[in-house]
Amino acid sequence: MISWLPGAPWCGEVALPDDGEAVGLAEAARGSLGHWLTVRQGRIARYQIVAPTTWNFSPRDGAGTPGALEQALAGLAVPDGDLTVVQHVVRSFDPCMACTVH
Fold first, then answer.
1. 34, 58, 63, 100: which has the fewest Cβ within 10 Å?
2. In 3D, which of 55, 54, 53, 59 has the Cα closest to residue 91?
3. What global pTM score does this model have?
4. pLDDT tens, 19-44?
5. Where are the domains of the chain?
6. 17 Cβ contact partners less than 8 Å away, ≥ 6 residues apart
7. Residue 61: how many other CB atoms lie within 10 Å
8. DSSP code for 101
């Protein structure tokens, strides 16, 4: 049995299904995090993760609404071509290391 008491096990053994689907959603420090999993015949048939960087750096949606970063950069004043201003805005979204802008 899993319990939230200090010192108690934080996970337990379960019987895995041969077929199934699962979704895990959480608000992480950098934004929304989602996992989608499909299992068929005891094997992972599909797995997708959408990390906060994906949401924050997304392109425009079907209605043409810009993603969060694009909205933050639109109309940004860049004095004398000083691109560090742009870098500060991008880094304020705390991109993951694989998505870091240099």
1. 63
2. 53
3. 0.59
4. 999 999 999 888 889 999 999 999 99
5. 18-50, 52-102
6. 39
7. 9
8. -
